[in-house]
């Protein structure tokens, strides 16, 4: 028999399958992937460096949706705001990947490049080296929490009636749609404002 025109297995198909399983179940295993791909488990390991290698392929796939051009935006606070919005959108598309990706070390070179550019941007405008990763981590916490919020039901509070918690009922009725987006923009604006104040204090 001749060899197939296209490989039965490659890194792209492995990544797609792993991300499908994560989107469905919040987790994946290499045997599960192999069954879905119709191959032996050992065949998957010929293309990736173990389960950790698959996690990094998934990380690269999800983060590929983050617009790296935002770092060219001026001024710096507009660039960080744009990065946060793009970052949130990328992870909101795959919210079940967040716990998996946030509990394993970042090794993917393309993803590390995003952090490198963020660090250079913050250093360039005057943040101290010791402050930079705190700023980035705090922004990530905001972004990823909001990405998870986007995956939640629009209304997270189920009231038996309007009498036991009347003010809560009124507040929920008043918020309308887009609660998660409004909350994100409020928190992002407050974060950027605080970061700007920290930088201004250095220059005073």
**What level of helicity do the residues show?**
55-70%
Low-confidence regions = none
Look at the structure and give the mean pLDDT. Answer: 92
E-strand count: 0
Characterization of the model:
By secondary structure, the protein is an all-alpha fold. Helices cover 68% and strands 0% of the residues. It contains 10 helices and no strands. The chain has helices spanning 11-25, 30-37, 41-45, 50-63, 76-92, 97-101, 109-125, 129-151, 166-175, 179-203. Helix 1 packs across helix 4 and helix 8 (129-151) runs antiparallel to helix 10 (179-203). It is flat. The model has no long low-confidence stretch (mean pLDDT 92).
Topology of helices and strands:
Elements: H1 11-25, H2 30-37, H3 41-45, H4 50-63, H5 76-92, H6 97-101, H7 109-125, H8 129-151, H9 166-175, H10 179-203
Helix pairs in contact: 1-2, 1-4, 5-8, 5-10, 7-8, 8-10
Considering the chains and any ligands shown, give keywords for the structure.
single chain; 204 residues; flat; mainly alpha
Short description:
The protein has 204 residues and is mainly alpha-helical. Helices cover 68% and strands 0% of the residues.
